[in-house]
Amino acid sequence: METTQLTADVLVIGFGKGGKTAAHALGDAGQRVVLVERSENMYGGTCPNVGCVPTKMLVHYSTGRRLEDDAQEFFARSIEGVRTLTSAFRAGNFASLDGKDTVTVITGTARFADPHTVTVGEGDDRITVTAPTIILSTGSAPVVPPIPGLATSKHLVSSTELTQAATLPERLVVVGGGYLGLEFASIYQHFGTHVTVLEGAQRLLPREDEDIAEAAREILEGDGIRIITGAKITKVEDSGAVAKVVYEKDGETHEVEAGALLPATGRRPVTDGLRLDAAGVRTTPAGAVEVDEHLRTNQPHIFAVGDVNGGPQFTYVALDDARIVLDQLLGEGKRTTADRVAVPHTLFTTPPLATVGLTEREARAQGRNIRVGKKRVADIVAMPRAYTVEETRGMMKFVVDADTDLVLGAALLSIDAQEVVNTVALAIRHDVTATELRNAIYTHPSSTEAFNEVIPVR
Ligand SMILES: Cc1cc2nc3c(=O)[nH]c(=O)nc-3n(C[C@H](O)[C@H](O)[C@H](O)COP(=O)(O)OP(=O)(O)OC[C@H]3O[C@@H](n4cnc5c(N)ncnc54)[C@H](O)[C@@H]3O)c2cc1C
Ligand SMILES: NC(=O)c1ccc[n+]([C@@H]2O[C@H](COP(=O)([O-])OP(=O)(O)OC[C@H]3O[C@@H](n4cnc5c(N)ncnc54)[C@H](O)[C@@H]3O)[C@@H](O)[C@H]2O)c1
């Protein structure tokens, strides 16, 4: 039996945002890089194949459906559009990396043999790769909560299936009202599915201020989504063409039926199959690869970037993780996870909810003297943009430190919020005062103009 043996300067495991960003930069710097990706359907990782990109394209398609469109046909066409885009992105991701003279992409599952070596594949196809530096970027996978009957239900669907299957379910039950759950709920409801969200917590979006969470809930319910908070699901039973989901709320037992059942209760780091024990790499009790602020594991030559290191699960955080590791390998080695200030987030409902910094509740809990500016989008005179695109739902809210006039946080539930929030984040990071942000000149008509009116005056 012949085994192909490769050596590299850097071995990257996983073709996600973190891994590929590092591989590109290291390859461009002249280092010999081998990147191992276990699936030919995942070049580029979760985001462009089964995550951010397909879901945001589905948000776009679903909100363009007209009443006269046949729901099933329109949905199938939309899925076709998603497939076309994701396969183009996948091919582009592969070609741009594997096309470099310094980089080799291997398709197969990597397993550690020792702290510097992994094996890929079995038998005659077996390859070993040895490198002095290794970057783990193996991402995360959905958690299926231990609800009796859920894991074995034939109606169980994954987020991946919901971005790829061409049949629109008549009824969808989403278990969990977090980012993933609410995005799919909003997408599928717009396509014409009857959606129910069962959320275990007593209220939706518990991290947000109550007024914002309530405004978001109003919009989702206004679109027809049934939202049940404080729901304790006790079992799932398949019954012919549907699954019966049994849950308790306020001491009473209820039931809801669905043709499709999506668990959206979080994602866990993917380390299974990697044989981290053979590398001597430690994991946390939650199963993430343990790292320090430079993203080094307990084995100093092995780094972990992206979802697998247990940090916030966002593509742009995986990207920033890669910057930190690159700074160690090619730069001054100063950059750390502690450098991150005012990292924004967007929940892509329609309209989206984008947030950054402190909520009003958090600012008050810190004992700060604050000013709050808040308006319903429909009432913001300085933002005709909302009227020009016929999306006047939502609310904008700013929290400002009354002593320093610095912006502490914002919650923007409004058209374009995923863009506008980045300007607020930049202001927070660079100590632009609320007065400066309020009194700046913005294009017209735009959503940023709302700052002229909603940011509270000193
Ligand atoms: C439905 C959905 C929507 C999302 N929407 C957004 C969004 O709008 N914005 C946002 O910022 N984030 C979003 N996210 C989160 C985002 O996709 C992730 O945070 C991001 O992709 C993490 O990148 P990563 O590099 O850590 O891993 P990934 O992109 O998951 O890549 C890991 C890769 O490693 C491979 N792999 C695993 N084990 C092995 C092994 N042993 N050997 C070889 N290869 C292996 C996997 O096949 C995979 O391709 C979304 C996630 C989902 C699921
Ligand atoms: N737009 C984006 O940036 C985006 C979109 C999708 C996913 N993501 C990333 O993917 C991660 C995973 O998303 P997610 O929504 O699965 O996780 P999440 O942690 O954001 O939300 C999980 C939700 O499920 C609820 N829950 C947990 N167990 C439950 C149970 N048994 N019954 C009912 N409810 C239950 C929780 O209270 C919580 O509200 C997100 O945290 C985010 O980082 C990001």
Automatic annotation (TrEMBL):
Its cofactor is FAD. Residues 9-321 form the FAD/NAD(P)-binding domain. Disulfide bonds join 47-52. Gene3D superfamilies: 3.30.390.30, FAD/NAD(P)-binding domain. Coiled coil: none annotated. It comes from the Bacteria. One of its GO terms (molecular function) is flavin adenine dinucleotide binding. The active site is at residue 444. Belongs to the class-I pyridine nucleotide-disulfide oxidoreductase family. This is Pyruvate/2-oxoglutarate dehydrogenase complex, dihydrolipoamide dehydrogenase (E3) component.
